[in-house]
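Researcher: Sequence recovery benchmark, item below. Answer with residues only.
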């Protein structure tokens, strides 16, 4: 597939992460293109394993737990990951983040993966609002969010430090009632 081609949505699926994904996630986190617009920091494989071991995806549907991750699959191949953090169950608030491994970038894989997650979260959980942040310079991620119907709500000045520089981010959000997927 050429970089300009888009992945058929039927080729894209999600599966919950498991402890054994720690090595893969660590490898992806180390790819320069994956960290180009986000400060991923250094995390040991042991810590990643421990974090993954604590995740029980059934808790998402019980309105409890905090961090949930999925592996994005392109056909049978792991391509990247999505993280959902429930920031406040009482108010139905969550944040998402996502990344694709270098060979899978710019192939139209992220939108169908996020659509699957959004549909699941908005139909099967008590989450009402999902936020996403992306660096102002990350045009690809901005297009993905806007294409899915996320609304740009504001500019977060100097939101994080990346390569020693403060980086502005845009705040995007989607409400359950706005989801049309």
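Model:
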């Amino acid at each position: 597939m050429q970089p300009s081609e888009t992945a058929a949505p039927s080729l894209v699926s999600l599966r919950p992460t498991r402890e054994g994904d720690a090595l893969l996630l660590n490898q992806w986190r180390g790819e320069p293109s994956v960290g180009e617009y986000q400060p991923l920091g250094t995390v040991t494989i042991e810590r990643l394993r421990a974090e993954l071991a604590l995740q029980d995806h059934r808790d998402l549907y019980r309105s409890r737990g905090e961090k949930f991750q999925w592996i994005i699959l392109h056909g049978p191949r792991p391509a990247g990951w999505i993280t959902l953090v429930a920031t406040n169950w009482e108010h139905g608030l969550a944040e998402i983040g996502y990344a694709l491994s270098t060979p899978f970038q710019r192939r139209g894989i992220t939108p169908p993966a996020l659509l699957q997650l959004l549909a699941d979260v908005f139909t099967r959980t008590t989450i009402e609002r999902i936020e996403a942040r992306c660096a102002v310079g990350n045009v690809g991620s901005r297009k993905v969010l806007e294409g899915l119907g996320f609304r740009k709500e504001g500019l977060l000045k100097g939101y994080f430090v990346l390569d020693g520089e403060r980086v502005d981010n845009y705040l995007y959000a989607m409400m359950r009632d706005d989801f049309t997927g």
